[in-house]
Amino acid sequence: MRSIDQSKAFSETSPTPAGSFANPARLKMIAQCWIVIACIAYVFDLLQQTHDGLSDGVRRPFGDDFVNYWSGAFLAAHGRAAEVYDFVAFHVFEQSVTGPAIQSYHYSYPPMLLLLTLPLAFIPYVPALGVWLIATWYGFYRALRLTSEQSVLLLSLAAPALFVNAVGGQNSTRTAALFGGGLSLLERRPLLAGGLLGLLIYKPQLGLLIPVALLAGRHWRASEGVAVSVIVGNSIRLASEVESGDALG
């Protein structure tokens, strides 16, 4: 028993061999190289989407799925929210933004996301993509900062999922920021945590299950935060629709 304890103590105190794959310095170098490679690959991919206007001339628009978020926000901000869920009208509008040679992209989110992405409507399409990527990455980075101070910046930039999210123009980093931030703050600031988790209502599979999980775990204050977030968000959305006379029902 004593020899086992001594062996365990030795393994815990012995440094990682310099040639080991798990050596921190080597992992840091690999991460830095990946960031450079990923940035070059992303720029190259974007340039492929400029062959015909803001598209690749075959099916993909500049920024890929981001065209959905920007188009939805723009239409909602200009009193045309009903067109977001009209497949034909929405596709025609997206073609007016990127060019005709794109496949049919449809808005598959509830109206709450229109409110959350509304600021994009006031920025031209191409720079809005940059704002979207930086803002959602920063939220992801801040969520990671709640768990640790060590190498978080490098981790947030080197995560392969960040590259996949950028290429697809998706909202995964935003979702990770809200979900991760909410869970990290659950014990320290439950009301704020609930507010963040409540914003995930644009993901029905999460928006419906999170309140159940919070109630099951007896996180009452966080549950209140979810309720407030959902009620306030939907109230603002409905008020804006009534004012513009473009209610979605």
Question: Would you mind describing this structure in some detail?
Answer:
It is built from 13 helices and no strands. Helix 6 crosses helix 7, helix 9 packs antiparallel against helix 10 and helix 10 packs across helix 13. It has helices spanning 2-13, 24-48, 66-77, 87-98, 112-116, 125-145, 152-158, 160-168, 172-184, 190-198, 204-207, 209-216, 220-244. Helices cover 65% and strands 0% of the residues. The chain is flat. The protein has one domain (21-244). The chain has 249 residues and is mostly helical.
Helix and strand arrangement:
Blueprint: H1 2-13, H2 24-48, H3 66-77, H4 87-98, H5 112-116, H6 125-145, H7 152-158, H8 160-168, H9 172-184, H10 190-198, H11 204-207, H12 209-216, H13 220-244
Helix pairs in contact: 2-7, 2-8, 3-4, 6-7, 6-9, 9-10, 10-13
Helix-strand category? mainly alpha
What is the strand content?
Answer: under 5%
The arrangement of helices and strands along the chain is: HHHHHHHHHHHHH
> Major beta sheet, specifics?
none
> How many helical stretches?
13
According to DSSP, the number of beta strands is 0
Low-confidence stretches: 1-14
| Rg from alpha-carbon coordinates | 22 Å
Q: What is the overall shape?
A: flat
Share of helical residues: 55-70%
Distance from N terminus to C terminus (CA atoms, Å) equals 70 Å
Number of domains: 1
- Rounded mean pLDDT score: 86
